[in-house]
Amino acid sequence: MSVARAQAMEAFLERCGWTEAAREPLAGDASFRRYTRLRQEGRTAMLMDAPPPQEDVRPYLAIARHLSACGYAAPCLLGEDAAQGFVLLEDLGDALFTPALAQDNRDEPALYRAAVGVLAAWAKNPAMRNGKLPMAPYDTAAYLREAELFAEWLLPQLLPAAQRETARAEYSQLWRDILRENSLPAEIFVHRDYHADNLIWLPKRQGVARVGLLDFQDALVGHAAYDLVSLLEDARRDVPKALAAELREQYMRETGVNREDFLRAYAVLGAQRNCKILGIFVRLWRRDGKAHYLSYLPRVWRHLEGDLQHPALERLRAWMDRTLPEAARGALPVHG
Prior knowledge:
Oligomer: single chain
CATH class of the largest domain: Alpha Beta
Structural class: alpha+beta
């Protein structure tokens, strides 16, 4: 952190009345944001340091206010300096789903059912539907841009240079066709990163407020299946297949969606998301030196292979089988 930014942070904390707080930096993620737990006079709070221009806290602030107004457990805003990228937040605690389940997975069905219950509540809440939300739509251009990360970052690791241009063109055209042929209406709030690392268990609260929500700043208005895919096809932990099937049924039962249409969208968005994640994780390795993300690639490949079994993705599955060596799919990247 530069001297100027450190001084700006101190000034922000002084304005908020937390300048004397003890500070506990938390582990970072794939973004430029950094979080610090503050302790002062028996109270705690979370400091978000999101330096511009790499980060913009204004979407986070707007979405946090909307979620809280709708009764969902986003952290309350205790102070903000949007121009400089500092936000003081309610501390929701340490009971993230991931470490809680690592210690004792006996509560796994209950936690996941509660998380799916939140998604079902979003689908039924008029305030969480298009026209009421302070976000842009998750449109075809965004889906294509994200799916292209696979071609941009992963294909060069799997194919010799002479094959890459043709393969990329074929891959891009396949995704344009898939998105044209399968309706994915932008209808409800989509968190876009709804998984165990971004959910906190708050058992003393009631109803949907038992699931604390983190890292929703990239939310868009999109299709309901996207967040369910994020939760059940988690890049960082395995959700047992039987439980995942039960949870999909729970969501469809609680929302009353058309089963065939929903499962088609679930497969298409699962494939799109997993292609995106494969590209992002390779980018984090190649560009940012974060090689530990490579350890997640085999799991994400397995998710993608499962999604590709749906008939709506038959041509993409055939392209994968024809173009990419089976031994490389699920393995670490092989070409420099």
